[in-house]
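Support request from a user on the community tier.

User writes: "When I paste my structure tokens into the form, the page sometimes reloads and wipes my input. The last time it worked, I copied everything first. Here is what I submitted, just in case something in the input itself triggers the reload:"
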């Protein structure tokens, strides 16, 4: 959607983004088949299907926000706020909007993934923390010592993106709990020199953190839903073998 508004061609999914989308779509299709085959009285399959399709939409929106932030970043040339033209100030404001939208969505999407995993594998994370995060769910996996291959893979992904996630988390917390992240930068610079021009933050470094965050989200989704697909097919095969043995 945003690419069309920006005059860009539609996105063609590729790489880890395409893999994440495909794995989630396969799980959603599997859940739909289960609903058609069984009456799903407790609506558990329906709930998980809705959540999975919601994750697909959320990933699409996250990728679009990251793309739009990069699009407007290219239009910001000046290194200081006072040196910007009116047009460039507008482009900078649009970059900030989509960049903020992006890093907030990174953690929002991860928490949604945590909710799906908690329900899918009966982790009961909410017994200890009613408002749990994705990272709480990862700790719950380790505490229960269940689905260790998935737990280890998700932990490995998280650890390999530790630095960009920490940077994004700090800016997310500043944005939500304190003040706008860019306002903090401005106040710090004013404190250093009252009459100095305000230098822009390192846009490229911040944007790279966001891109790394999107990549981490994609890899986490790939691992979680690939594992779920494998488990479902394994359980189905075992059930069929068991039914065949009983019929003899």
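"...and here is what came back when it finally went through:"
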């Amino acid at each position: 959607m945003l690419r069309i508004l920006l005059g860009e061609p539609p996105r063609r999914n590729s790489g880890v983004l395409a893999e994440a989308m495909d794995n989630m779509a396969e799980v959603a299709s599997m859940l739909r088949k289960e609903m058609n085959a069984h009456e799903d009285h407790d609506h558990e399959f329906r709930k998980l299907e809705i959540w999975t399709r919601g994750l697909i939409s959320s990933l699409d929106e996250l990728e679009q926000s990251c793309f739009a932030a990069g699009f407007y970043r290219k239009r910001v040339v000046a290194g200081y706020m006072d040196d910007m033209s009116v047009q460039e100030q507008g482009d900078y404001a649009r970059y900030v909007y989509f960049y903020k939208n992006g890093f907030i969505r990174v953690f929002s999407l991860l928490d949604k993934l945590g909710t799906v995993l908690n329900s899918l594998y009966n982790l009961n994370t909410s017994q200890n923390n009613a408002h749990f995060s994705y990272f709480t769910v990862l700790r719950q996996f380790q505490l229960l010592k269940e689905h260790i291959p998935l737990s280890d893979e998700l932990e490995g992904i998280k650890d390999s993106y530790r630095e960009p996630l920490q940077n994004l988390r700090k800016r997310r917390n500043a944005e939500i709990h304190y003040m706008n992240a860019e306002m903090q930068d401005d106040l710090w610079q004013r404190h250093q020199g009252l009459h100095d021009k305000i230098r822009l933050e390192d846009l490229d470094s911040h944007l790279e953190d966001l891109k790394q965050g999107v990549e981490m989200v994609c890899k986490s989704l790939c691992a979680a839903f690939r594992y779920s697909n494998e488990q479902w097919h394994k359980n189905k095969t075992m059930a069929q073998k068991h039914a065949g043995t009983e019929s003899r």
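Agent notes: The reload is a front-end session timeout and is unrelated to the input. Residues 187-194 have pLDDT under 50 and may be disordered. The two ends are 56 Å apart (CA to CA). Escalated to web team.
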